[in-house]
Amino acid sequence: MKAIQYREVGKGPELVEIEKPEPKAGQIRLKVTAAGLCHSDWFLMNLPKEQYAYGLPLTLGHEGVGVIDKLGEGVEGVDLGDPYAIYGPWGCGLCHTCAQGQENYCPHAAELGITPPGLGAPGAMAEFVIVDDKRHLVPLGDLDPVQTVSLTDAGLTPYHAITAAMHKLTPGSTAVVIGVGGLGHVGVQILRALTQATIIALDITEDKLALAREVGAHHTIISSDGAVEKVRELTNGLGAEAVFDFVGADPTTDMARQMVATNGFIHIVGIGGGTLATGFFSTPFGANVRSPYWGSRSELMEVLELAKAGSLSVHVEKFSIEQAVDAYQKLHKGEIRGRAVIAF
Fold first, then answer.
1. 8 A C-beta contact, residue 282 and residue 305
2. Which of 61, 209, 254, 290 could link 123 by a cystine bridge, Cβ 3.0 to 4.6 Å?
């Protein structure tokens, strides 16, 4: 079967032919219908050899949807041919955290060698993918796979970050979205669907800001030296109750620090390598700084329900698997508007 793999540190993704995997007891094989590209893939592929710990060769693709193609021994409760989205942050399934559906925060996954598909385990950027357990499948229903696949990360991750700050996002509040790319433009929609907050979107390009306005941002600002002052002006000098940084680089985390209101929330969602010191004389009194990771299985169900209701959609650029390597290069250069998706 065809697959996109990372095979050698520093070489980037490659299109290869590999054997079709066979499901073991308890496992499920999906025939992939769509797989999403993500900046997290490049974060992984840009790691130096001494820091890379994901195994090689690695089939990429932590966003995946497909139809059940084959069941391993003992699997019951799911049927061949049914469409599912893959819940990616796999945990042990047995601990207190996993029992709450929060496998994204499983404290035992690393020690047990459990890794997400595409981020350690073979991913969905292939014609077939193995899912380790039926609990990691969420019914897709009638949703279009190409339009939906990115929601498994680009929808779930901002949803998890935003719902954790909902008590701050009361009517009359302000939410700032820094970075209106693959996750940020979905984050704007989630804020519109779930809150009455005023949404201010920041990005470095007018094209991204136009996308922000298309999906519901009330105000858009070029992310430059004057951005903090403009946010302060729009909030009567108080700052925003919640700031969602979908870039996560040092310049944006520092902007978030200067934009957040007293007792507000800063959620650093992007993995741009930035850090933010917090404490007296650094962040405003009572400000909460958090780095949320992915989301829970029940939250993915809620995200798909928002999509079914028409409240959430992803701006998608579609590619074939033969075009996937070029699509990754476009993503790396910042030339993708929204999300890039491989359609099988």
1. no
2. 61
Q: How would you write 12-55 as a 3-class SS string?
A: CEEEEECCCCCCCCCCEEEEEEEEECCHHHHHHHCCCCCCCCCC
User: Which has the closest alpha carbon to 231: 199, 266, 277?
Assistant: 199
Percent of the chain whose pLDDT exceeds 90: 93
The pTM score is 0.95
Instruction: Give residue 226's pLDDT.
Output: 93
CA 308/CA 36 separation, integer angstroms? 19
- What tokens were used for 125? 């950027």
Tens of pLDDT along 125-183?
Answer: 999 999 999 999 999 999 999 999 999 999 999 999 999 999 999 999 999 999 999 89
Predicted local confidence at residue 325, as pLDDT: 97
Structure tokens at 311: 């409240």
Tell me: pLDDT of 189 over 90: yes
pLDDT tens, residue by residue, 70-118? 999 999 999 999 999 999 999 999 999 999 999 999 999 999 999 999 9
Nearest partner of 183 among 13, 331, 343, 298, judged by Cα: 331
**Taking residues 49-57, what's their average pLDDT?**
93
pLDDT of residue 338: 87
Pick the closest to residue 152 from 59, 89, 246 (CA basis).
Answer: 89
β-strand pairing of 288-290 with 260-268: parallel
Is 256 within 8 Å of 233 (Cβ atoms)?
A: no
Do 145 and 124 meet the contact criterion of CB atoms below 8 Å apart? no
Q: Output the six-digit token pair for 38.
A: 């993500």
Helix (H, G, I), strand (E, B) or coil at 334: coil
For 270, the token pair is 């992007």
Mean per-residue pLDDT, 21-49: 96
Of the CA atoms within 13 Å of residue 162, those in its CB half-sphere come to 31
Full set of structural domains in the chain with CATH? 2-152+295-343 (3.90.180.10), 156-290 (3.40.50.720)
Element spanning 259, H or E: helix 250-259
> Rounded to a whole number, what is the largest CA-CA distance in the chain?
62
